[in-house]
Amino acid sequence: MLLHSLSFRHSFLLTRACSNGRVFSTLPASTSLGYLPTTHSPVIPKLAFFNSVTGDGSKIPNYRVLDELGVPVEGAEVPQLSKQFAWRLYENMQLLSTLDDILCSGQRQGRIPFYATSYGEEATVIGSAAALADDDEVLSQYRETGVLLWRGFTLDGIMAQAFGNHEDSGKGRQIAVHYGSKQHHFHTISSPLATQIPQAAGVGFALKRDPVRRSKNVACVFFGEGAASEGDFHAGMLFASAVPSPTLFLARNNGFAISTPNSQQFYGDGISARGPGYGVDTVRVDGNDVLAVMNAVKEARRRCLEGGRAVLVEMMTYRVGHHSTSDDSYVYRERREVEDVQKNNNPITRFRLFMESRGWWNETYEEELAFRLKRDVIKALKRAETVKKPSLEDMFTDVYAEEPWNIQEQRKELVALLKKYGQVWEPWQTELRALKDGGKVLSD
Fold first, then answer.
1. CA distances from 414 to 121, 398, 402, 424, 437 (A)
2. Residue 207: is its pLDDT beyond 50?
3. Can you give the pTM of this predicted structure?
4. Which pLDDT tens digit goes with each residue over 235-288?
């Protein structure tokens, strides 16, 4: 069932429902027996269990604007779009896909050590980015490269991080696709699952305490449905709802936590069902519909700012790509399943069909865009390969205000090894030549 008009769910007082043999019942909306003084919960004389947030025991519906063929569904509110803005949405989705094609191939060729794609989730990422303010604080997981692209992060910046060269703001210390940009209000990604969720609640609380930004910006955290199984998810939701803080929780439900399908991750109705438990406004949206995602996140952001409290958006999508270049997803799912989604529920194709129906796009534009994006990405990749690696000095900086004794000892040990082997052992000479300063600053 589809929600044609956007509505957020908070909590519902139900009567009785039955679904697949499971009984759902909750408290009636009113009673003559009074209320519990601490919770204002109505008193009832009949024993009644409940296990639903919808009111009738049905599944939480998905909000949608465009169907799989790019046609607005009946009753849906299509956002006002200019041709130029629609082009920007489409170009960024295609750029993200092109970037994935080339960097994934680059990893297979041994040019970079690791990569994780966003295949199938382009609308989820770009639609969200388009709905946020460019100075909203973003704490992401692994598949939100499109947020950076939308905010103007350059292809050279992407490549610098992937190759770990000296132009990388992280100085080559992070694994590939773990981006960060202070300029673009994009907090550096960390590998441990879900750590960004309670951190986002803290960022939201800091924004609320800032008189300049408290009514202007939100903290936005992206995570997969697998991360929502971590305790950090519950800690972050509780903090942002109870304290509270303007924190926007964006769950990408793409069907898999690496190899574990969501059917084995939880028994309840996805991630949306958890929102009312923390007293936060919640909505589920078709994550392959870029306009629906944009509408939902825009409204969620408004509620975050006005209420100063957390809001949860669950974006239903499908991870077409492997979890990462270290994964072979065809071990645990059928290739035909993936190909079917690519063909029949492709977020890029869906929006292209919508644009074509308005006379905004055609095959000539498509060919020109594909050529330009591929050329630009390959150019940035080839350039990044020629850029030197960070200085050895950067191994010891930026963590401590005053360098502790153990780090000083490690520095001295490395200097001694450089003096002993740096000029005589070919493997070390080769590595040193790839560095920005050849190791001279440290050894001097």
1. 44, 18, 19, 15, 15
2. yes
3. 0.91
4. 999 999 999 999 999 999 999 999 999 999 999 999 999 999 999 999 999 999
Give the tens place of pLDDT for each residue, 55-75: 888 899 999 999 999 999 999
Tokens (6 digits) for 127:
């639609």
Tokens of 368: 């020109």
Residue entry with tokens 């964006």: 250
- Residue 251: strand pairing partners: 223, 314
Residue 329 contacts residue 102 (beta carbons within 8 Å): no
Sign of the alpha-carbon dihedral angle for 403, 409, 415, 417: negative
Q: Cα(320)–Cα(318) distance, rounded to whole angstroms?
A: 6
The long-range contacts involving 322-330, CB below 8 angstroms and separated by at least 24 positions, are 322/117, 323/116, 323/256, 323/258, 323/259, 324/114, 324/115, 324/116, 324/142, 325/104, 325/107, 325/108, 325/114, 325/115, 325/116, 326/114, 327/258, 327/259, 329/256, 329/259
Distance CA 257, CA 255 (A): 7
Q: Would you state the torsion angle of the CA atoms of residues 402, 407, 412, 416, taken in this order, to the nearest 10 degrees?
A: -150
Structure tokens at 231: 């305790």
- Degrees, nearest 5: CA angle 79-141-8: 40
